[in-house]
Amino acid sequence: MKKKLSILAVLVGASLNAQAAQNPFFKITEVGQGYATGISADNSVLAVKPKNDAGNFFSTTPFSDFLVDRFRFEQDCILSGDVCDAFWEDNANFGFDWRRDFLDATSQRDSIGVSGSETDGLAVAMGPESGTYVGYKASKNAVNNLANSRTAFAVIDSGNQVALEGNYKVNSTNVLSSATSVAQVSGSQYLITGTAATGKNRKVDTDEYKDCFNGDDDNFGDYRYCPGTDTQAAFWLVDNGAVSLFQPGSYYDNDSNMVQTASAAQAVKLKDGSWVAVGYSATDEEVSEHSLDLATYWTLDLASKSTGATTAIPLSEGKPDDSDASLRGSWASGVNANGYVIGNQRFGTNKGQNRPTEMFVFNLNSPSSNASVPLKDKPINGANSEAAAINDHNMVVGWRDSRHQTQPVTGGTNRMQEAFLLSAANGNNWYLNDLICGLNDAGSKSCSQNGVYYHIAYASGISPDGTIAATAFRYANESDLNNRINASVVSIKLSPDSTNYEGVPANRVVSNPPVVNQTGQDGDEGGGGGSLFWLTLLGLPFAWLRRRG
Fold this sequence. Notes:
By secondary structure, the protein is mainly β. The protein has helices at residues 2-20, 54-57, 70-73, 81-88, 95-103, 207-214, 478-483, 533-538; strands spanning 26-33, 35-39, 45-50, 109-112, 122-126, 133-139, 149-155, 161-164, 169-170, 173-174, 177-186, 189-197, 231-239, 242-246, 263-269, 275-287, 290-301, 306-307, 311-312, 327-335, 340-347, 357-363, 385-390, 395-401, 417-423, 429-431, 438-439, 445-446, 453-462, 468-475, 488-496.
């Protein structure tokens, strides 16, 4: 009898051990070296590989493009004067090379997943399938012998590029347009969002345009006025190669004495059948004759090719203001069919010794209620977070300060980032690094995938079924991961084992926090997400702030 019981105990124990094994919630597939920027509805990942690291100069994401996302760069270099100089002076791969390439119309980014560069056509956003995407092309000295201009384009179902120009032209040449998203309306008709120059106030021969695009002998330009000429949100309807452009009749606030900018980030068909777009628009506040930006939305009438009024998204911090308000700017970055809008607010004043960007969630079904800020001051006062994309299951992806980053950063280095997943409906959120580990037969954590280790820094896109496009730092072994050394930047696809999810069960979360190396700082992760360890080696002082521009 005892022998039978012993055998039974062994069998029960083996059964328990077998049940302890568990696959990761997300399976990682590498797409290529570079930074993921988005994903199509059929789960094809789009990424870019930057030639120059302008992101660190502007203390922002390394794959951002300042013509599309001007609001990210208006803040200028906010590090110490010596650090700004180190980025800007003859320093390979940083601000100097980035600026020279722009002035010379030399491609700075190449597409991954969709081949192309800035000069032959760089894809920046995907549509329903991999053969439908939008982007821009750069051409040298296209307007009045100034720096390169950029023109939006669309490719539908693997067809030819269709140019998406604005109404404002000089010598029959498009001044500036850029696309940000594409959605199918019906059949062969697609709606593309973006921005296009208007020429209403600031012309291309004014000082503001020259400061941004043409530069001068001392510092090759003043980025704070980019794009230097007025832009307005733009909507293009494309049908079998035919293009129709329509734009809002006014900004959120009109003032003819300053540069005004606006852009639409995404448009979607709501469940009631109406169309809405989100983005940002000029406010009546200004800095050096340039408007600040406010998160906004527009209703769209595709039949009449018109928009409703530019409407502000209510934020508890108020509107960006150069005097007594705390925000430097805000923008909406995505919207879903349920009416959830995601976006970000960027502070212009210190908060917890940081000038953070905080992600927000706004519900179009409650238009008078302030947007919520679910990651506000988590885990510390002044923590950063940025929302990038949302799907119709209300799942949001983006990035936030790595959970161990508690050091002050004003005048210092950038904080390391971790990608997140968040429910817009209830605010529940997860670090993606906690969703890529499994359990072995003994119930022990196993975080290796594809024979290597990953730290997921930026999540930039999420498809309808919950597949995520992200940027990760790849390490050959766990020791390198723990010490943050010898990393390669790779774009990845995260495929869930349970599609169409609206949350992650608690038993699927396997804690996988970043490990701080012995110095208490992060090592070099190849740029972008990590603190800039080489600045420490330079022994540069951080006591004095310097603003470029």
